[in-house]
Amino acid sequence: MNNISLIFIPLLITFVIIYSLIKKNNAYDSFIKGTKEGLGLFKEVFPSVCAMLLAVTLLKSCGLIDDIKAILSKYLPYSNVFSDIAPMVIFRPISGSASVAILDQVCSQGGDSFSCKVASTLQGSTDTTIYVLSLYFTSVGVTKWKHALPVGLLADLIGISSGVILSFIFLQ
User: Fold this and answer.
1) pTM for this one?
2) What does each C-alpha distance from 133 to 5, 7, 49, 75, 146 come to in angstroms?
3) pLDDT tens-digit map of 111-123
4) Of the candidates 88, 97, 151, 150, which has an alpha carbon nearest to the alpha carbon of residue 125?
């Protein structure tokens, strides 16, 4: 696989140069223009991404997740499953990478475990609502979210609930 990437990247660069010569397009000017547009987009989106990363880090480090897991393990049946997926339920609407890290942590205990199956179902049945709203709305300049956040979080709640219920019905 490494050999393919060693060959593919120079071929891609060569193709772009040849294509721009055939189309009589100045590839360097197009590259500079695209870079300037990308930096402008980065400048607009970076504060939202930075705020999301800060929020995820604060939630992880303050111990709130561990407290929620402890409460769930006391009062719910199948407490080990719910305590395993509780961090994912919290982080999935916020950050895709954090929820994938939690999925990896849950599945590292056993790929065929019920907790791993439920976590995998949740990963596929929900989206990173807060991240998507903050990133895309910021990039296009939408300032009034109105009903987007409540509806998105409601959809996440329905997806999480449906994922858990269907996992208990079909995967147990």
Assistant:
1) 0.64
2) 35, 39, 11, 34, 11
3) 888 889 999 999 9
4) 88
